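Project standup — Tuesday

K.O.: blocked on the structure for the chain from last sprint. Re-posting the sequence here as requested.
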Amino acid sequence: MKFARAVLILSIAANLAFAAWWSLRVSAKIDTVTPHPSTENRGLVPPQSFTHTDSTWSSWQAGSDADYAATLRKQGFPPAVIRALVMRRVKARYQARLDALESQNPLPYWRYQAYRNDERLTPELRKQRRQLLRKIDDEVKLAVGGDVFDWQDPYEQAVRLRTYGNLSKSKADQVALIRGDYDELYQQVSDRSGKVWLQEDQAQLEFLRKAQREDLAATLTPEELIDYDIRGLSSNYTFAMKLNHFEASEVEFRALAKLQLEFEKNYPRGITREIAKQREAEEKKLVAQMAAALGGERGQEFVLVNDPSYIKTSALLENYSYGKDLVREFVSLQRGIIQRAEAIQQQSLYSPAQREAEFAALQREASAKISAKLTPEAMAAYQKSGAGSWLNQLQTPAPQAVESKP
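H.V.: unblocked you, prediction finished:
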């Protein structure tokens, strides 16, 4: 016991001695910083190592925001870092006002919901916060100068390219301003309506949509506007779900996107209940129209992967690391068994007992073929999930049919 205690004391003493030596070693040196080398084609000074003392940053920040940005640029800092540092400096001037807005109407932790956090603020307070954030953004843009897209990090530039494509920077700027202005107007309508949307609110939203469309059409050529619309569909949930299991080429994507855009034009969201019901009914026809546009095997594949049975089966089997080929095999088996069950149901010569026996035989056959491909754990999950609910329906005289191929 005494020996162990001595070893422990010696170990602690050694660690303390090493820490003291390292601290003295570091403090005896002047920090050397090498700026990020990503300066090509941006007009920046080639990166060079430089030394700084504790007063370096203070001297750099002594002037205006533009002076600060110019100094960082001269030192060879990459654009994204310059913008981040200027953003931090500008935001610090407004932080007290932002905190004052955020501190109003605080919620206790058990009532806090991140996605509904804004609801605790009044529409006027939300408006004031948006104005402050826009002012901060404007001051940062003014300070860094030049084209704002040149100052974005790689992720932001990738988002811009995905959103605006090959638009010139001047046109992309104009479109961004249009989007920002109308987003503010949409938010004002939402704030005023609260949780109850009246017909007049829907009418105003429709008016704003048309006005925004006219502004975009006046800014872009017809070809640019179509490309912008197609790229914007990446944020359309229902369209994204149609392509979730379908690996479309760019040509196929654009062909399907045009059909989706036409559908959105004819059945806009959130206008009236009547249109909402009509939209829901026509949505089912849209898959068939898209399949016809693809044609052949690709059209059949599109229908298959948008079949609810495929989606449910794929979601389940993915949890157990099974591939898509097995999903297709199970869906094909399901369709074949259901067709045979329908034929049994229509057979007038069968007695109720014979029909029930035939259904039971189908269920045993289907269960055996599926269980042969799955582990016991996966099979149990399949039977309990929506993917395998059709097996249980074979016990009833009227099993639910699966959508057939076109």
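K.O.: great, moving the ticket to review. Residues 31-152 form one domain. Residues 127 and 187 are 9 Å apart (CA to CA).
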